[in-house]
Each structure stands twice: as C-alpha cells, then as structure tokens.
What we know:
Elements: E1 2-6, H1 14-27, E2 32-36, H2 44-48, E3 51-65, H3 75-79, E4 85-87, E5 92-94, H4 104-108, E6 114-129, E7 132-139, H5 147-159, E8 166-170, H6 177-183, E9 188-193, H7 197-212, E10 216-222, H8 230-237, E11 242-246, H9 250-257, H10 262-265, H11 267-288
Parallel strand pairs: 1-8, 1-9, 2-7, 2-8, 9-10, 10-11
Antiparallel strand pairs: 3-6, 4-5, 6-7
Helix pairs in contact: 1-11, 5-6
The structure holds iron/sulfur cluster.
Iron/sulfur cluster is lined by residues 63, 79-80, 82, 84-85, 94, 99-105.
Amino acid sequence: MRLAIASGKGGTGKTLIATSLARLWADQGRAVSYADADADEPNGHLLLNPTITREDRFSVKVPVLKEKKCAGHGKCQDICAFNAILSLKDSVLVFNELCHGCGACLLACPDNALIERDREIGTISQGMADEVKFYGGRLDVGEARVTPLIAGVVDAALDNASDEELIIIDSPPGTSCSTMAAIEQADLLLLVTEPTPFGMHDLKLAIELGRALNKRLAAVINRSDLGDNTTKELLEKESVPLLAEIPFDRAVAESYAASRLPVSTCADFRERLMLLSEELDIITRGASK
Ligand code: SF4
C-alpha cells in the first residue's frame, strides 16, 4: 500500500499520524517505509530519529548555450511557458530558478544550439529508524522549486520497496504542485484535519485536489473534541470515510514537544492508532478486490 498522508492546512498533526503509523507497523513486524516529502520543512526525522546511511545530491536539468552557436532566432523564448529564457542578439539568458526543465527550448531551437546541464537543488537522504526505512528530502536554502525534489524522494522510497511493503508518504500541507507531486503515486490519500472553521475550509480544498487526481480518500480528525461538528458533517456530505477521531491529550502533546513518538509512550493514543491501522487495512483490502 502506498499511503499518502496530507492535510489542507499545516499544524493538523499530519506528521504525527504519519510517523506514528510507521512506528506502529514496524512494531507489528510489517515492512514499512516512511518518505518525508515535506521537503520545504521536513521534520519527520525529529520524531523517528533515523540513522542516515546515505545522502545524494539531487539535480534538475537546465538549458545552456553551446558556445557561439546562437543565431538569435528567439524561438526558445517564444516557446517557454515559464518566462525562464531570454533570447538576446547572439546569446540567451536562462533564469534557472524559473526553469522547469521541460526541454521545450532545446527542441524549438532550429540550430540545436542548446544543451542541458545538471543543476543541484537539494539532497535526498536515506536511513533506518529502527525497522522503519526512512527517506527525506531537503531543499537548498534559497531554492524556489521543491516539486522535483519531492518527486525524487517518493521515487527513492518506491524504487527500494518490496511488493508487500507499506509506504507512508508524509506530504506537504496545502494543495499546490508540491502536494500533487507527493500524492501522485499513492493508492490512498489520508487527510488529517481538525474540527475548526480553518480545518474545514482547507479540508474542502484537499478533497477537491484528491478528487481531481482520482484518489481514494479517507480522513482522520485530530483534536476531535476541541471544535464543532462541521468537519464531520462535511466528510459525510462528501462521502469521505472517517477512519479515526483522536481527542486532544496533554500527554500526547508533551511527548510530541519532547520529540518522542506518543505511539510509544501513550497507551490511549497507541490504541487509537491500532484501530486506525485496522480501518486502513479494511479499506485497502476493499480497494484491491
Ligand atoms: S527547459 Fe523549459 S522551462 Fe526551462 S527555459 Fe527551456 S522551455 Fe523554459
């Protein structure tokens, strides 16, 4: 199962649920990988505390001009949908931060004057957090385009996984391209939300995104006792199964604040995660029939 855990807004407890499920499943003897695809602000490692065994620099392709070959046709500039290349009289100027590496300018140039070069934008790390395989991405400071790095982290986890492995993809919050890159290859999208007007507003957007990508959806309401019923009503109206409600627990908050996974320290939280795990097994078994 490829389980993407996402939320319309930040701070709902997405990483708490993602890392806790990873630990629980590993404790149960199941093969599990955790991919921290929130490469702008990765923090799953703070809870899982992995030993990093490998780090690879991650690159994207950007165009460069072959020496003295530009005739200034301007076709590269015309075709670029991202305004990332400027045609000058006998040269080009590439704005690397805007370039999406689509290669259209290379194809458009009648003189075949452009080639691609690698440009490093971040690092992908791999390691082990006890029995949990860990993958994480970190964007270099000042870099604007996190989407390719996120796709790289997910690919690394999928490439190294066995057929039976449970893969948890901890997605970035929101509904932008970076979230889409994280959830694209998931079988199931688990939305972690909270019962507040803010949670409900962003949950609507997250459901919309999941539906646009044709994803099977399910939800968890975290801090379920602190708000109202509107989030639950929205899930019912949208026919999104609610798999678990997790009430606020001061012991969980204290454990989290101390970078200790509450699934290992709080019996009630662990019990609720076990029920969530069972619900996930049921829903995924149903999906594969
Ligand atoms: S590779 Fe694509 S995005 Fe980058 S400059 Fe060329 S056309 Fe523009």
